[in-house]
Amino acid sequence: MTREYIVDVAGVPESPSPISNAVVVGNTCWISGQLSVGPGGYIPGTAREEAEIAFGHVFRIAEAAGFSPSDIVYVDLAFADLDDLPQVNALYATLFAPGHRPARTVYQAARLPFGGKVKVQAIAARE
């Protein structure tokens, strides 16, 4: 089975780490953790604002790999402070089409890169 490494994606800043934004194997796309970053680096904001930027990156990466938000089957959310979950849940409820409910893991991390509040990673799959 071949692997496709998705590295350069328009609108997603290049990672300072030697990683791919995503790896596609067959009909599955593993999207690396995304933070609230832009061309100038980390963009601080509320957890909801940071999650909105991170999810934007996830969706752009999925599309660059040939997937759509409706193909996302799993989301992993890491928080610097789990008390921010309600505001991110409010955003999350608006991101996917009605009835599309990806599986999800939520946890608090001791520390996120750049001092971020939220990190989002995802898996997309299609038949």
From TrEMBL:
Residue runs in coiled coils: none
Entry-linked InterPro entries: RutC-like_sf, YjgF/YER057c/UK114
SUPFAM superfamilies noted in UniProt: YjgF-like
GO terms for cellular component: cytosol
Pfam family, one: Ribonuc_L-PSP
CDD domains, A to Z: YjgF_YER057c_UK114_family
GO MF annotation terms: deaminase activity
Name the UniProt record assigns to this protein: RidA family protein
Higher taxonomy: Bacteria, Pseudomonadati, Pseudomonadota, Alphaproteobacteria, Rhodobacterales
